[in-house]
Design goal:
XRE family transcriptional regulator, 70 residues, mainly alpha, 64% helix
Amino acid sequence: MTTIFIGKLIKDELKAQQKSVVWLSQELGCNRTNIYKIFNRHSIDAELLLRISRIMGRNFFEPYVDRLSS
């Protein structure tokens, strides 16, 4: 079973959407240093992941759900 590196998925999606770290930090109501910390995480609080999913319009829970069926 491979580890899901959620921080990298968030970082890659932010880049794909051509949005900045500053944009995400403003949407989350935190400073950009916290966003860089999120990028380095292997796991993340579910509530924070839900907020990020809503803000970015992407279901970041999907990789975890896919694991349930395998």
